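Run log // design_07
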């Protein structure tokens, strides 16, 4: 089984995203049919000085989660999606893309991230679909179950679950990695995904899709990511096993494994602009990803035409196989 179909699949997704956006973006500017991935976005990323969880709105220049760049073609019309971590970064990009593809959207986020969630509400409701915001901490098992059922009631159904929220703090020496930190990383990244799927699967009809946000570190971890890399590898394993278990019910389960992406996730685990600049210089495309570049694969894996996409992990890593 191919765990990281990042080469051809990612290339096709990029072309598909451009095609789906048509010939113009939301501001009416022509979008070329051929886009050089090296220069699509700037290679200069300035990280705001903020801790966990941080705010999307604090980035200057702003991140691109598709606010102006993503134009959908109603590929998910009538679908009902729950997205954790949907206020910022990749989750925000997925929420915007799903709305512009015609899906109703419910997002989850931490209460401290309410300003970002309010921005997502405005962006989603502009598309004429239903939007619901449910703040809360995914470390709580009861809340995870409640979140699923509240989203199901609010939207009148649930057929897309994106378990995207994540947590990571670097530790270069295992002696500084506390048990509390280890548990927190697993609670957010793995246990919450399990709780969400356990509650959602009985409610989801055939044709539904469940997606986990894993990471390139699941395959090639960094030395300072002992707990984080382990959780992301666990998510790929869960995508495989749950895909095999739920496939006979017509529910597809997959994972997406992004590479380094500009988002609050970077600032929350201590990366600085200087660090990001050095890493950028080592990347094949000479830049890290913007969240908008991840959205197309989440759309592709959620739509019904991807009916053979099951129990796999898809890399969108800019060719950086060392992540």
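design_07 sequence
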């Amino acid at each position: 089984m191919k765990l990281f179909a990042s080469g051809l699949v990612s290339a096709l997704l990029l072309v598909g995203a451009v095609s789906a956006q048509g010939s113009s973006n939301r501001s009416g500017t022509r979008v070329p049919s051929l886009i050089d991935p090296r220069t699509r976005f700037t290679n200069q990323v300035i990280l705001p000085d903020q801790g966990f969880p941080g705010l999307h709105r604090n980035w200057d220049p702003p991140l691109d989660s598709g606010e102006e760049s993503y134009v959908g073609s109603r590929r998910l019309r009538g679908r009902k999606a729950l997205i954790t971590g949907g206020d910022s970064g990749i989750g925000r990009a997925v929420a915007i893309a799903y709305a512009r593809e015609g899906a109703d959207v419910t997002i989850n986020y931490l209460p401290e991230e309410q300003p970002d969630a309010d921005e997502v509400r405005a962006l989603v409701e502009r598309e004429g679909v239903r939007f619901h915001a449910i703040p809360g901490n995914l470390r709580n098992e009861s809340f995870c179950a409640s979140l699923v059922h509240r989203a199901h009631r609010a939207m009148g159904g649930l057929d897309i679950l994106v378990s995207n929220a994540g947590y990571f703090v670097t530790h270069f020496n295992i002696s500084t990695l506390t048990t509390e930190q280890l548990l927190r990383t697993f609670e957010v990244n793995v246990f919450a995904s399990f709780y969400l799927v356990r509650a959602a699967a009985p409610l989801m009809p055939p044709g539904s899709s469940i997606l986990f946000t894993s990471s390139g570190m699941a395959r090639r971890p960094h030395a300072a990511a002992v707990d984080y890399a382990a959780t992301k590898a666990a998510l790929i394993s869960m995508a495989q096993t749950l895909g095999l278990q739920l496939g006979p019910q017509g529910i597809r389960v997959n994972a997406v494994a992004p590479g380094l992406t500009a988002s609050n996730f970077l600032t929350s685990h201590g990366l600085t602009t200087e660090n990001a600049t050095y890493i950028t210089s080592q990347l094949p495309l000479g830049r890290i990803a913007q969240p908008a570049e991840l959205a197309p694969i989440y759309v592709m894996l959620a739509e019904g035409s991807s009916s053979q996409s099951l129990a796999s992990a898809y890399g969108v890593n800019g060719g950086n196989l060392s992540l």
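Confidence is low (pLDDT under 50) at residues 1-28.
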